[in-house]
Amino acid sequence: MMVVEVKNLSKRIGDKQILSDVSFTVQKGEILALVGPNGAGKTTTLKCIINAASRDTGEVLIFGKPFEPSLKKNIAFVSEHRKVFSRLALGDYYKMYQALYPNWDDLFFKNFLSRYGFSTNQELSKFSMGQRTLILVILALATNAELVLLDEPTQNLDPTVRFELIQLIKQYVQEKNIAVIVSSHEIFELEEYATNIAIIKNGRILYCDSIDDAKQKHRIVSSMANLKDAEVIGLLDGEVLVRTEKDMGEYPRLNQIIIGYLRGKEGMQEIKSGYCQITDLNSI
Ligand SMILES: Nc1ncnc2c1ncn2[C@@H]1O[C@H](COP(=O)(O)OP(=O)(O)OP(=O)(O)O)[C@@H](O)[C@H]1O
């Protein structure tokens, strides 16, 4: 079932085009990773989905409908800046979320509290940035909302907590059959939990697909390979990411697909007669 449909979203601020014709969909059971460099438009896209930022053109449908306030109880969002109300304790947040979200999963949240031993009397603003990130992501999952948006959910987390959180997100999506959109720079860890990928650069989606299909459709080949039946996507160190239906080269890992699209063909002198030549890989 379709949870989010983003159709041809464009947005300009002043004379800067922030988003250009952004389109993708997210279904139940999917974890879509929105990846791209700083300033690519990831946070703006998330904000447009939850109606926290305006758009110039395009459409966003959530559960098949344009945004309306009643949808809020079915959407949870963890923002990039982890802003929290000063003076509100973790216990206050717990009560607030419980009241706002009718499907609140109390057992899940209580298990989390006992697992980490966090005091509900401590002000949320007094937790470390990593602890605050963890708490806000767990609060978002405990809402049982059918759409969860997480901006950089593993930022500032130590490796153990990061691993546990990734497992929790994965397990939670599978068990509850919800949809998650994650904005992330952590391209090496995405393979562990994302099911779909949307690569964004300069406000444009360069590629969007399920990760399994993306791997099927691309190959890593030598820079001197015959590329007659392949579309060159981008350069990796000494190798090339290509899109092809031919069984050539090796299947890529997700991070190679992402880097290939983000780097593009820059540094490639020319592609002629089916062969590509690399000029200076160190310049990429
Ligand atoms: N309110 C604003 N006024 C002016 N420019 C803005 C505003 N909000 C965002 N931008 C610009 O829009 C672009 C996209 O920003 P956005 O925060 O969506 O990127 P991002 O991909 O989330 O980046 P990061 O990975 O650094 O968090 C940036 O160039 C940013 O400077």
List keywords for this structure.
284 residues, alpha/beta, Rossmann fold, 2 domains, six-stranded mixed β-sheet, four-stranded antiparallel β-sheet, globular, binds adenosine-5'-triphosphate
Structure description:
With 284 residues, this protein is of the alpha/beta class. It folds into 2 domains: 2-202, P-loop containing nucleotide triphosphate hydrolases (Rossmann fold, 3-Layer(aba) Sandwich); 217-283, no CATH class. Helix content is 29%, strand content 32%. It has helices spanning 42-49, 90-100, 106-116, 129-142, 159-176, 190-193, 211-217, 254-263; strands at 2-13, 16-27, 31-35, 57-62, 65-66, 75-78, 147-151, 179-184, 196-201, 204-210, 218-222, 230-236, 239-244, 268-272, 275-278. The strands form 4 sheets. A 6-stranded mixed β-sheet has the order 6-7-8-3-9-10, with helices on both faces. A 4-stranded antiparallel β-sheet has the order 2-1-4-5, with helices on one face. The chain has a 3-stranded antiparallel β-sheet with strand order 11-13-12. The longest helix has 18 residues, at 159-176. The relative contact order is 0.14. Mean pLDDT is 90; it is low at 277-284. It binds adenosine-5'-triphosphate. Adenosine-5'-triphosphate (ATP) is lined by residues 13, 18, 36, 38-44, 80. The site of adenosine-5'-triphosphate has 11 residues, from α1. This is ABC transporter ATP-binding protein. Pfam families: ABC_tran. Keywords: ATP-binding, Nucleotide-binding, Transport.
